[in-house]
Specification:
The strands form 2 sheets. Strands 3, 4, 5, 6 and 7 form a 5-stranded antiparallel sheet that branches. The chain is mainly β and 114 residues long. It contains 2 helices and 7 strands, in the order H-H-E-E-E-E-E-E-E. The radius of gyration is 23 Å and the shape is elongated.
Length: 114
């Protein structure tokens, strides 16, 4: 069974088109292991687990101050992938309410333009 698990892992890494599309789906983490707890519904020697480690929605709240004006920012963020998101933030309190919309993109490098 261990040799079968290693063979399936190699086929996934090689993008073997004979595998089901779900096995080739791009995810954050793929685990291929032997299936020692077989059931009639899953009577296979090898199990493949696909994991995504990002959350689709996030929210936050905090405290803000601009000059002498204090407010509470509340933000809702929708993650489209682990690298891209859009968020809406609303400022409650103070002399006037405010808001902002942001597009967030993660990157491996920080670029500074002078």
């Amino acid at each position: 069974m261990q040799a079968a698990a290693e063979d399936v892992a190699k086929r996934i890494n090689d993008r073997d088109p004979t595998l089901p599309p779900a096995a080739l789906e791009k995810t954050d983490n793929t685990i291929v292991t032997t299936n020692t707890n077989k059931t009639p519904q899953a009577n296979y020697d090898v199990a493949v687990f696909k994991n995504n480690n990002y959350r689709n929605w996030e929210w936050s709240a905090g405290y803000g101050q601009h000059g002498g004006d204090r407010y509470i920012p509340v933000e809702l963020q929708r993650n489209f992938s682990k690298n891209a998101a859009i968020s809406y933030e609303h400022h409650f309190g103070g002399n006037s309410s405010g808001w902002e919309v942001k597009y967030t993109r993660k990157t491996d490098k920080l670029f500074i333009i002078f």
